């Protein structure tokens, strides 16, 4: 075994041990305490890490009129949200199912667009749901499963195989089906939709083999699987948004279906669908920029 491979495996195991410990500690704490502690640690340490320079660059590019102080405030919010989301991970099902004991009515998650959800669930046809890394985005498939909407989620597993297995265990216990991204994932998504199923996916990450789509005024390489599936199955496409309302309380909104053009120019249709979906996502981010994950190099060509 090469020395570099050995050290990588050791590093992966250490990361996995740390992740197990963090999740174990978070699981022992009440939801609000875990969320608050996770946010506090992340917003204290995160802005000092090198990756935050990517976040500052992205924010300055997206919001050129904002001051340095405003950019730093948003960046602290980004880390706060990321820390909270990580600490909330072991509590995903509890967050969605929680009801205030004193009243029996107040829940941690509000739901807007229930009529669109019901139509998607009950029409007996395939459908697509897209979102981005906003607030606690992991609540979306949990909510679908809790409301009897069968959704298989396309996701990119962590590079660390030990961490990937831990994440898979938590996700599979709380959510519907999971499909790892890639060629096999695309084939799996087609099979699900051929049976009348639903696919959920995040569309806000850079995809090297994607097409350039306008995003905050700059072209961003974007995967086209959403548009290709929509056009192939001529099915409804909905945007799903998660907003953090404060602490571990959220609002989930399901949009009306987007228009899906079907002309003789397939490439133009695909570009139009992805531009429409990305524009919707951009609007959500502009409203709550501190709740989006600005820390990856989204605009790298």
List keywords for this structure.
single chain, 301 residues, alpha/beta, 7-stranded mixed β-sheet, two-stranded antiparallel sheet, 11 helices, 16% strand
Describe this structure in words.
The protein is of the alpha/beta class. The chain has one domain. The protein is built from eleven helices and nine strands. The strands form two sheets. It has a seven-stranded mixed sheet with strand order 1-9-8-2-5-3-4, sandwiched between helices. Strands 6-7 form a two-stranded antiparallel ribbon. Strand 8 and strand 9 form a beta hairpin. The chain is globular and about 50 Å long. The chain starts with a helix and ends in a 14-residue tail after the last helix. The mean pLDDT is 88.
């Amino acid at each position: 075994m090469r020395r570099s491979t050995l050290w990588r495996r050791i590093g992966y195991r250490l990361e996995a041990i740390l992740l197990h410990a963090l999740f174990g500690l978070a699981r022992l704490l009440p939801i609000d305490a875990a969320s608050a502690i996770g946010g506090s640690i992340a917003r204290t340490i995160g802005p000092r890490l090198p990756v935050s320079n990517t976040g500052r660059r992205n924010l300055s590019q997206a919001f050129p009129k904002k001051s340095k102080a405003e950019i730093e405030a948003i960046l602290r919010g980004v880390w706060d949200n990321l820390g909270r989301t990580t600490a909330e991970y072991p509590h995903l099902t509890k967050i969605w199912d929680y009801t205030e004991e004193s009243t029996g009515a107040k829940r941690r998650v509000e739901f807007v667009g229930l009529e669109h959800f019901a139509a998607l669930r009950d029409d007996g046809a395939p459908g697509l749901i897209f979102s981005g890394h906003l607030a606690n985005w992991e609540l979306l498939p949990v909510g679908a499963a809790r409301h009897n909407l069968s959704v298989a989620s396309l996701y990119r597993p962590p590079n660390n195989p030990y961490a990937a297995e831990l994440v898979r265990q938590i996700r599979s216990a709380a959510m519907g089906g999971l499909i790892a991204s890639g060629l096999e994932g695309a084939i799996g998504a087609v099979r699900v939709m051929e049976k009348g199923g639903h696919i959920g996916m995040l569309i806000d990450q850079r995809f090297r083999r994607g097409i350039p789509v306008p995003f905050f005024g700059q072209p961003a390489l974007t995967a086209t699987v959403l548009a290709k599936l929509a056009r192939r199955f001529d099915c409804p496409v909905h945007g799903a948004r998660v907003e953090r309302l404060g602490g571990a309380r959220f609002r989930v909104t399901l949009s009306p279906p987007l228009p899906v053009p079907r002309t003789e120019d397939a490439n133009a249709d695909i570009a139009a669908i992805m531009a429409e979906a990305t524009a919707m996502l951009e609007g959500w981010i502009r409203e709550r920029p501190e709740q989006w994950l600005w820390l990856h190099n989204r605009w790298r060509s």
